[in-house]
Recover the amino acids of this structure.
């Protein structure tokens, strides 16, 4: 069955899809948006108090992908046989309208200028020999200055709270001293520091570091965004990450973009539509549309379109490219092909301080995007020359609200008993008096870390699963250990009764059973050459010019910052060039 | 300003609309601009609120009116010749709108606000007729049959009702042309009393169901609040300080009608439909005219003490003390959005301190909103449909009574207390509305 032809078909109703849909409608193009999961209304499922049911939410994965239908397979190294990721744990892809943009935390960063041109920067500062042979260090092909207007645009749509350091080169506030200059302040003032964040701010300052308020897409005040859409102010209830925000305070496509499209007759959102492949013409140079499974009718349907936008989650975009034959699949042995190359993640380890028994750390409150961070050991803000590794980590207290089940599973720290009276005492002590801080760092790309189609396992639709080959590498382990070592002076300045430092250990392999972060990246990266990137600097497929692929799949390296702010800016950047150049004259935006 | 002469106003009523309303007068002759004018008037008259039930079948009727005498269904008013009004002549159409007489001579139930429409000008009726014949798609669909049992199903008493209570178009038009302080206020009066038929909900009705007043010159009860509609209690739109719009500025009213929300409150209940289908489509000049006209009214209750913010409850709550059970429920369930100081976070979350809805003599709307929740209507200028959750299955009668009383008596609000028995009776009386499956807006 073939549906009415549309100008633009967009796969995925998360941030990237919603941004592109809005931009394409502003350009006067008809849009069909396909979403694999159900429609989601905060007013319905996210309504208080049902929305803050931890068992139903974070534990039973109310807003997440159902791995019984489709998932990925995972192995650590190239000579292993991968197994399916049957229970969500290490990372949590979203499903349904809003995607991961509905269940995210809200930390809303702009990529650091050096990170966007990391290969050039490292070569300039430390020399080309500094880069390990198996590391695929690359530039994005777009600079901070080029992206700045789109970072600004995204913040004004998201209602981002934060404190600027410099605007147009002038120091205007107490923001992050390492952050690049901005064209405007944040649309909302920073979120207030919760108690633990204020302790961290003080201790980090005493330790000689430069703490700042995390930029948060949790609204510090009521806000009306660029599209006339409203947010309520955050009340620090602590149910951001893994939940839909009943206060309408956490930015989501559902709150911040889609209401401006839902009454538009040239915008069609089709839910429960699992896209099977992008259809290409006979010479595979042009997409003709998309075929999806209507899961309600259990019937395949086709939408024909002039322009196809892949805006699903990072690895779904890569999966669809591989299933559809868009671009050449990456082969690590021959080191050829680009789709699946530079699959990256992030390093994250948590350290904990136990404060005195008259200091109650109130960990039940919080906001997913709020907290206090420091960038002294992020990006290239410190001299890597004598250290011999590439990358860095922000360090922060990002108290997002510790829920009861999570607290019980965490217990009393590494050395505490896992059962009995000792467990209970440790749990209570930890919940009442401790604070956690993370080193949330970069992860570089390597020749033998990649994505491809699994030769063994298929999903419930009969298609091969995407296979992840991933483990930790020495460069990133050493980076993490170095940064975690720099946390120690903060622990001392805090006056902690005791503390534990969390770090990656030498030789440690990726463990899928423990939640780390959902910040997966790469696999279909943007860049300057079709030999090492799947997309040009406008996120356009080098091979099929009427396909754009929007998401963190475009990141050549995993950066220390959370990805959403950069994904949103790249989405607006790509949309801008589609609107101003591509639509007038469809074809490659970068000629070879 | 010197009062305008009736003759001048008649002329303005005809021409003024054209010039303020939308197109230039020169275009008014063309068929398309008549259709546009008719579409605009249909929005001003909120025809869709009753005559569009299924959003995909505009004006095909079917909206139920649950009345003590039974259930009425709004008819199909598309130009379909069999199921709609396709066979109506312009005279038939005018008779239905202004006299409440259907094509077959059958009297219409006064759920159709013909006593208000009676004052609509010939030019406006003509534009509406052209629009409903040429600007609306015919839909061959019959609404459900009215469920009214004999003897009340007989239509002829309606004729007697009409003779007794409805103005003739002649008297209504004459009244519409009375003198006003400015052309703008005259325009506002025309919209409110005529096509807008605001009084149909917001004016009290006599036991025989007619509105006690149809225009501002007839009585100070005009727009002083009406009887419940689907459980909601239409508020007083007069200048009463506590229970009316006395503290709303002209711009507050304009913003409310254009977007469904302002810094003083948010729309709910039937007003959401009136805004979504109707007032949001009016131009600024007409919205200001309506606001100016409403600001000319006198309070319905002469001795209402002006509302003054009283922070004593806020101070108690800020000391982490809970003065009573209502305060406890309020802090647990309401304060996240409406705040302990009652100011809310307008326009996202409306204030309760000083909100006339909250201080209404009849606590019905406040009880219903607690039980059922409410969503702000999505409008073109403010597409967010922020939603308050329902507490009917969460709070007991006593808890609802306590929290409603707390809200009605805090921050300078001073309105009667509500008992658990009141809430129990209210639940019984309004079970249909409380348990109605609401189509949650996707927001």
């Amino acid at each position: 069955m073939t549906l009415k032809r549309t100008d633009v078909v967009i796969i995925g109703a998360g941030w990237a899809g919603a941004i592109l849909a809005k931009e394409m409608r502003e350009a006067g193009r008809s849009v069909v948006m396909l979403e694999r999961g159900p429609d989601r209304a905060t007013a319905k499922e996210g309504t208080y108090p049902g929305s803050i049911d931890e068992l139903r939410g974070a534990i039973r994965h109310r807003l997440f992908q159902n791995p019984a239908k489709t998932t990925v397979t995972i192995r650590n190294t190239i000579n292993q046989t991968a197994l399916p990721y049957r229970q969500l744990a290490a990372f949590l892809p979203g499903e349904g309208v809003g995607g991961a943009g509905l269940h995210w935390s809200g930390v809303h960063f702009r990529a650091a200028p050096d990170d966007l041109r990391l290969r050039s920067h490292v070569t300039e500062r430390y020399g080309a020999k500094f880069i390990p042979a198996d590391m695929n260090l690359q530039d994005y092909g777009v600079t901070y200055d080029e992206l700045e207007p789109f970072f600004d645009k995204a913040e004004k749509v998201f209602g981002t709270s934060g404190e600027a350091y410099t605007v147009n080169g002038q120091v205007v506030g107490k923001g992050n001293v390492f952050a690049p200059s901005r064209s405007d302040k944040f649309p909302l003032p920073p979120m207030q520091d919760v108690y633990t964040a204020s302790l961290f701010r003080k201790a980090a300052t005493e330790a000689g570091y430069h703490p700042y308020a995390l930029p948060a897409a949790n609204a510090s005040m009521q806000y009306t965004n660029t599209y006339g859409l409203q947010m309520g102010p955050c009340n620090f209830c602590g149910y951001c990450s893994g939940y839909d925000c009943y206060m309408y305070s956490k930015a989501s496509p559902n709150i911040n973009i889609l209401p401006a499209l839902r009454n538009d007759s040239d915008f069609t959102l089709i839910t429960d539509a699992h896209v099977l492949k992008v259809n290409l013409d006979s010479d595979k140079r042009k997409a003709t549309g998309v075929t999806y499974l209507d899961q309600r009718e259990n019937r395949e349907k086709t939408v024909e379109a002039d322009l196809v936008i892949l805006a699903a989650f990072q690895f779904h975009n890569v999966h669809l490219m591989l299933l559809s034959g868009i671009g050449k699949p990456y082969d690590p042995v021959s080191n050829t092909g680009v789709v699946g190359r530079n699959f990256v993640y992030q390093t994250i380890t948590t350290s904990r301080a136990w404060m005195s028994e008259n200091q109650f750390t109130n960990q039940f409150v919080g906001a997913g995007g709020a907290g206090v961070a420091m960038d002294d050991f992020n990006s290239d803000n410190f001299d890597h020359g004598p250290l011999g590794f590439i990358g860095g980590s922000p360090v922060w207290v990002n108290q997002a609200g510790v829920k009861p089940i999570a607290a019980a599973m965490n217990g009393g720290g590494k050395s505490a008993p896992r059962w009995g009276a000792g467990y209970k005492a440790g749990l209570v002590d930890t919940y009442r008096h401790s604070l956690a801080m993370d080193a949330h760092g970069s992860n570089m790309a390597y020749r033998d870390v990649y994505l491809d189609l699994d030769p063994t396992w298929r999903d419930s639709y009969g298609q091969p699963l995407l296979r992840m080959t991933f483990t930790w590498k020495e460069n990133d382990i050493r980076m993490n250990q170095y940064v975690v070592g720099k946390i120690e002076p903060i622990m001392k300045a805090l006056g902690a009764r005791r503390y534990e430092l969390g770090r990656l250990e030498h030789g440690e392999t990726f463990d899928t059973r423990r939640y780390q972060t959902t910040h997966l990246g790469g696999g279909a990266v943007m860049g300057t050459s079709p030999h090492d990137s799947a997309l040009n600097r406008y996120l356009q497929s080098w091979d099929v010019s009427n396909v754009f692929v929007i998401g963190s799949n475009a990141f050549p390296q995993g950066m220390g910052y959370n990805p959403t702010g950069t994904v949103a800016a790249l989405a607006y950047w790509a949309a801008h060039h589609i609107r101003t150049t591509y639509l007038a004259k469809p074809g490659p935006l970068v000629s070879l | 300003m010197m009062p305008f002469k009736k003759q001048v106003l008649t002329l303005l009523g005809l021409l003024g609309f054209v010039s303020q309303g939308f197109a230039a007068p020169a275009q008014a002759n063309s068929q398309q601009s008549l259709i546009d004018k008719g579409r605009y008037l249909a929005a001003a008259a909120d025809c869709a609120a009753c005559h569009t039930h299924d959003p995909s079948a505009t004006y095909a009727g079917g909206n139920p009116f649950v009345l003590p005498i039974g259930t009425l269904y709004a008819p199909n008013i598309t130009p379909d010749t069999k199921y709609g009004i396709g066979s109506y002549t312009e005279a038939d159409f005018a008779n239905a709108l202004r006299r409440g007489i259907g094509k077959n001579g059958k009297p219409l139930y006064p759920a159709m606000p013909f006593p208000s429409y009676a004052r609509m000008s010939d030019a406006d009726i003509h534009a509406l007729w052209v629009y409903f014949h040429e600007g609306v798609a015919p839909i061959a669909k019959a609404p459900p049959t009215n469920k009214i049992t004999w003897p009340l199903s007989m239509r002829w008493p309606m004729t007697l009702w009409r003779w007794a209570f409805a103005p003739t178009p002649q008297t209504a038009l004459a009244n519409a042309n009375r003198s006003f302080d400015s052309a703008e206020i005259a325009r506002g009066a025309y919209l409110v009393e005529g096509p807008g038929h605001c009084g149909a909900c917001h004016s009290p009705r006599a036991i025989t169901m007619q509105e006690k007043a149809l225009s501002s010159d007839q009585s100070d009860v005009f727009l002083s609040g009406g009887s419940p509609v689907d459980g909601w209690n239409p508020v007083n739109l007069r200048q009463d300080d506590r229970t009316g719009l006395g503290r709303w500025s002209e711009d507050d009213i304009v913003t409310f009608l254009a977007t469904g929300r302002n810094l003083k409150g948010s729309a709910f209940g039937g007003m959401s439909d009136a805004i979504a289908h109707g007032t949001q489509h009016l131009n600024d000049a007409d919205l200001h005219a309506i606001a100016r006209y409403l600001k000319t009214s006198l309070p319905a209750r002469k001795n209402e003490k002006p509302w003054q913010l009283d922070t004593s409850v806020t101070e108690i709550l800020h000391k982490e003390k809970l003065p009573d059970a209502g305060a406890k429920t309020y802090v647990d369930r309401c304060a996240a959005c409406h705040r302990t100081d009652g100011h809310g976070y307008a326009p996202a979350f409306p204030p309760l301190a000083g909100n006339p809805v909250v201080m209404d003599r009849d606590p019905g709307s406040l009880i219903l909103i607690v039980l059922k929740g409410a969503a702000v209507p999505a409008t073109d200028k403010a597409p967010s449909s922020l939603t308050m959750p329902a507490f009917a299955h969460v709070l007991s009668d006593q808890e609802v009574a306590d929290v409603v009383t707390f809200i009605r008596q805090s921050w300078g609000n001073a309105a009667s207390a509500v008992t658990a028995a009141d809430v129990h009776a209210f639940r019984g009386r309004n079970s249909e509305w409380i348990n109605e499956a609401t189509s949650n807006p996707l927001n």
In short: Chain B is about 40% helix and 5% strand. The two ends of chain B are 48 Å apart (CA to CA). The first strand of chain B starts at residue 64 and ends at 67.
